[in-house]
Design brief:
By secondary structure, the chain is α+β, with helices and mostly antiparallel strands. Helices cover about 50% and strands about 10% of the residues.
Length: about 200
């Protein structure tokens, strides 16, 4: 059994979108939980098994998977027929895994340092500068319409979600902006946005 612990307008939003993209929503029990919010509302939910009370959290037959890149990989491997990942041995598997890891190891720290206006040579040397990270993405997207080639994958979903959440950090690059528009124009993105607006307005 699959159980997904979710809160709207959090990092769990993109995992809900992924489940929709995979055609897997009917195969998953979605538990909407509370989490502490930046404005002081919300709070930790005892129903959420994550040891830090975070979302997204996925539990499959008693085994917990946490952190967005791990969940994206787990789900795209679990539902390979949707074509949103690359199977072991399939061309592009290494590139797919590398972009998932790059998101957590590089992009998320770099974006948050920029958001918090933190500049430090040690951090830049470890994680990259914002400009270096954007150059890496723009170069990749000048070579192909998506990060792993001609087909949208969970890596595109994960990385695009950052810029849909932080539009002020979108680089001025034609290939990048065309890619982001393609990612944002997917029906699952629009359904998810409308659903969360209803939830947060309730």
């Amino acid at each position: 059994m699959l159980t997904f612990y979710y809160a709207p307008q959090t990092r769990a939003t993109r995992i809900y979108q992924l489940l929709d993209e995979l055609g897997a929503l009917e195969s998953v029990a979605v538990e909407t939980v509370t989490v502490p919010r930046r404005d002081g509302t919300g709070g930790r939910d005892a129903r959420n098994p994550h040891p830090e009370g975070k979302v997204p959290t996925l539990v499959h037959d008693g085994e917990m998977i946490w952190e967005s890149p791990a969940i994206v990989l787990y789900l795209t491997d679990l539902f390979p027929e949707a074509g949103l990942g690359r199977r072991p041995g399939e061309k592009g598997r290494g590139r797919y895994l590398s972009w998932l890891a790059w998101y957590g190891d590089v992009l998320e720290p770099v974006i948050h340092f920029r958001f918090l206006e933190i500049e430090n040579p040690g951090l830049t040397n470890t994680f990259r500068s914002y400009d270096d990270a954007m150059d890496r993405l723009c170069t990749a997207l000048a070579e192909a319409p998506y990060l792993v080639g001609d087909r949208y994958t969970g890596a595109d979903l994960l990385i695009a979600s950052t810029f849909l959440w932080f539009p002020d950090f979108v680089p001025e690059d034609a290939a990048f902006n065309a890619w982001l528009e393609r990612c944002a124009d997917r029906p699952a993105v629009k359904r998810n946005l409308e659903r969360e607006q209803r939830l947060m307005g309730a």
